[in-house]
Write a structure and sequence with these properties.
Keywords: Isomerase, Membrane, NAD, Transmembrane, Transmembrane helix
Bound molecules: uridine-5'-diphosphate-glucuronic acid
Helix content: 40-55%
CATH class of the domain at 83-287 and 324-361 and 399-416: Alpha Beta
Family: Belongs to the NAD(P)-dependent epimerase/dehydratase family.
EC number: 5.1.3.6
Strand order of the largest sheet: 3-2-1-4-5-6-11
Mean pLDDT: 86
Low-confidence stretches: 1-32, 51-66, 68-74, 440-449
Main location: Golgi
Strand content: 5-15%
Largest sheet: 7 strands, parallel
Transmembrane segments: 41-58
């Protein structure tokens, strides 16, 4: 027998196929050749199909975070590399203000927090390079508008994915970054029910990819990255302090952020990377994320569409420690300045390096119903409200940050109350979407936060 199971001699074929015994032997020989050829063809076609499928199944998935996956060509991403591209990368990352100026890679730079942090670092004279995969989790046009704003400020946002190891290595070949501010992630608590894999892809695999690049770089950068208040999960000890339990996440999103904190421990322990995790508490403000409640409540109130306000058992209010973007940016910049130094080189640890976690919240939780009242007042429009029992979707009933540690070690002092912060958001929202509608190409002219 040969590989496709065809008999090795025509005679044998003839014996195995008595129905053909009356046919001429040459005809039988011809038929056998034909059969053998077809069988081989079928075998190799199947083999090629299997290879093709395996390639697609094993390739990194093209979605997630404001920056995540290999396959940049299949994503239609701009190709990277080449002298002109390297020159742009170098120029963007060049420190303008010495001494003490930093050269920072900001992942998720076309995201909400990423754009604000990249702009703030650039403003003070640091060299800043952005990285973002511009995925379609929400309005890509909003991400492009943020990118345009950063480009005008002198920040080049490389279109690429945090899971693209060769790209990250290339960036570190071109620029010896002193810091990475890693903000690329698959955000949103409730969306994890619909696309769980995207959370693992961006928040677990993507983080590992970034830390791999950081640990191999020489010199190693210090890393500051976004964890989340959601890691407190079912913790009921208020206000939430960094010492509280975080082993009872209520959503897959929270679980991936918690996993990130453990992964950070590993890279600090084995490779001497200085790593600071920041637990953000419901960040809001101009250029925000359309998947967040304050944002889509605004849109729906203006359209006269009903909004659902979640309630706990016995109509208990659901509350969040809403934190204004400018306060968060100050916390991130301070975390960069206090990040300490990684001690390793060439993938080897040379000594202990700092590993820290800080809450960045506002310390004054506000019920969601009150958030809606403020929006109504600012928009001068009545919301069509539906009070509904909080679905089992990963949301937790309340968050409340204890920020003592960040106050003490980072000098973090949030200043903006919800009323003031939402006023700035609404001003931006109306400006952005009005100029978007008028299509005069001038939207997002200024940073309104
Ligand atoms: O602080 C955090 O760690 C997290 O903050 C937000 O998550 P969340 O606080 O759930 O923010 P929203 O999705 O804007 O929800 C705000 C509040 O509105 C409530 N809500 C949401 C949606 C809705 O239709 N109705 C409603 O009452 C939620 O239960 C929640 O209490 C972000 O979406 C996460 O990416 C981030 O990590």
């Amino acid at each position: 027998m040969d590989v496709d199971g065809a008999p090795s001699t025509p005679g044998k074929w003839k014996m195995d196929k008595p129905l053909h015994h009356h046919r001429h032997p040459r005809l039988l020989l011809h038929r056998w050749h034909l059969h053998s050829t077809l069988s081989k063809l079928a075998f190799w076609s199947l083999f090629a199909l299997a290879l093709f499928l395996a390639f697609f199944l094993l390739s990194p998935r093209p979605h997630a975070s404001s920056a995540s996956s290999g396959g940049r060509r299949s994503l239609g991403m701009a190709p990277w590399g080449g002298p002109a591209w390297e020159k742009r990368v170098r120029l963007s990352a060049r420190v303008r203000r010495q001494p003490g100026g930093k050269s920072v890679l900001v992942t998720g730079a076309a995201g909400f927090v990423g754009m604000h942090v990249a702009a703030a670092l650039k403003r003070r004279g640091d060299g800043v390079l952005g990285l973002d995969n511009f995925n379609g989790y929400y309005e890509p046009s909003l991400k492009r508008a943020r990118q345009a704003l950063l480009e005008r400020a002198g920040v080049f946002v490389v279109e690429g994915d945090i899971n693209d190891g060769p790209l990250l290595r290339k960036l570190f070949d071109v620029v010896p970054f002193t810091h990475i501010v890693h903000l690329a992630a698959q955000a949103g608590v409730r969306h994890a029910l619909e696309d769980p894999a995207s959370y693992v892809h961006s928040n677990v695999a993507g983080l590992v990819s970034v830390l791999e690049a950081a640990k191999s770089a020489d010199p190693q950068p210090a890393v500051v990255w976004a964890s989340s208040s959601s890691v407190y999960g079912l913790n009921s000890h208020v206000p939430f302090s960094e010492a509280d339990r975080t082993d009872r996440p209520a959503s897959l999103y929270a679980a991936t952020k918690k996993a990130g904190e453990e992964i950070a421990h590993v890279y600090n322990h084995i490779y001497g990377l200085a790593i600071t995790g920041l637990r953000f508490f419901t960040v809001y403000g101009p250029w925000g994320r359309p998947d967040m409640a304050y944002f889509f409540f605004t849109r729906d109130i203006l359209r006269g569409k009903s909004i659902s306000i979640f309630e706990g058992p016995d109509h208990a209010t659901v509350a969040r420690d809403f934190t204004y973007i400018d306060d968060i940016v100050k916390g991130c910049v301070a975390a960069v300045d206090h990040a300490g130094k990684s001690t390793g080189s060439g993938g080897k640890k040379r000594g202990p390096a700092p590993l820290r976690i800080y809450n960045l919240g506002n310390t004054s939780p506000v019920p969601v119903a009150d958030l809606v009242s403020i929006l109504e007042q600012l928009l001068k429009a009545k919301a069509v409200k539906k009070f509904v029992k909080m679905p089992r979707n990963g949301d937790v009933p309340f968050t409340h940050a204890n920020i003592t540690l960040a106050q003490k070690e980072l000098g973090y002092h949030p200043k903006t109350g919800l009323q003031t912060g939402l006023k700035k958001f609404i001003r931006w929202y109306l400006d952005y979407y009005t100029s978007s509608l008028s299509k005069n190409g001038s939207r997002g002219r200024s940073m309104s936060s």
